Amino acid sequence: MRILPVRGLAISFLLAALVLASSLVAQETLPASQAGEIGSPTGKIAFIRDRNIWTMDAHGGHQMLITTVGNADGRLSWAPDGKRIAFTRSGMVDLKAPDHTGGKHKVYDIFLAFVDSAETGNTGWWLRITDDMGGRDPEWSADGSVIVYTKDMEANAVNAVMPNYQVCLMEPEGGGQTVLRKDWQNMTEFFTSPTMNANGDIVFVHMHNREKSGIKPRGIARLHKDRFMASVDSVYVQSSKLPTAIAPSFSPDGKWVAWVNNSMTESGLYISPADLSKSYLVYAPPPGVSVGTSPPSFSPDSKWLTFATSDGSVWIVKITGSGAKRLTGPGLDWAPAWSK
After folding, report:
1. Per-residue model confidence as pLDDT tens digits over 178-230
2. 144 burial class (0-12, 13-18, 19+ CB within 10 angstroms)?
């Protein structure tokens, strides 16, 4: 076997880096003609800082602590009235069975934070709307009538072998919880991280149960909320088209779906038309940094996106890929969500 000298190795690594960089640059971005006119960003952005909920304006100013929960974890979503924020809190189960088996795993529930309470100085007020330790990834519907979310159907079973992730709907105060797959007890393929447009179409992450490596994301797919009993084979066909896509998010106008590409060679933030037929690069992170795995979020006019990077920063960028601006960090900030 021929061993390259140190200088040869350095050149090889440099060439590999250049090839990777060129592949990212070569990714197609959304033409300005399809994006339409893009003005200045407006509205508010909620985000997690050091496990608490904060808000700021669309330029990074007027940062305000909303809740001091200390364990906020994952997607945030504004109510259409701009007064409430749905969020997830996480806990931990440490099981020590009599035969010395067991282990640790996280559990979750969904809560509401109230902006007007924070504005009066009360950051210790919130409302719990799920209580079965499996609810997470909440997103308010466009009309405010329901919240779509992920539920681990096995979360409160102390001896569960593995999770069972399903897409659910509930009323804003937590009542009327509905599992969209009626055969969930027999499912070995799971759906998580849902996002829904005004027509009731839901884009979600298809989770594939692999015997050797466990439950892994396979890609994203789309089903209408009233047709969620479609065959798993049809979901496979869809998710195979964008096999490295995770963390989807619909635009308010329903035209676009933003998502995170978690591949090694084309990592970054992307958008697709609502039918997921094509993909456009929005943001490619620099070496050593990746786009966070919490769903990105569109501005109210669907022209901008906010997202987090792995160094604890919150960014905004136009859907055409230009105008990227870091609003916070580096630090402990993630999971930004734009007001509706």
Report:
1. 999 999 998 888 999 999 999 999 999 998 876 555 678 889 999 999 999 99
2. middle
Report pLDDT digits (tens) over 238-248.
999 998 999 99
Number of H helices, E strands in the chain: 4, 23
CA–CA separation, 235 and 229 (whole Å): 10
265, 20 in Cβ contact below 8 A?
Answer: yes
Cα angle: 40, vertex 45, 48; to 5 degrees? 150
The token pair at 10 is 């350095």
d(CA 145, CA 164) in angstroms, rounded, equals 26
CB atoms near residue 198 (< 10 Å): 12
Q: Which residue, among 309, 304, 250, has the nearest Cα to 284 in the 3D structure? A: 309
Q: How far, in Å, CA of 90 to CA of 218, rounded?
A: 24
Amino acid at 57: D
Cβ atoms 230, 202 nearer than 8 A:
no
pTM of the model: 0.89
Enumerate domains of the chain plus CATH numbers.
Answer: 41-338 (2.120.10.30)
Buried-exposed string 154-187: b where 16+ CB fall within 10 A, e elsewhere:
bbeeeeeeebbbbbbbbebebeebeebbeebeeb
Query: pLDDT under 70 in the chain at which residues?
Result: 1-26, 210-214
Residue 114: φ, ψ to 5° = -120, 115
Q: What pLDDT is recorded for position 239?
A: 94
Q: What are phi and psi of 24, to 5 degrees?
A: -70, -45
Looking at residue 210, what is its pLDDT? 63
Q: Is the peptide bond before 138 cis (omega within 30 degrees of 0)?
A: no
pLDDT number for residue 160? 73
pLDDT (0 to 100) of residue 93: 85
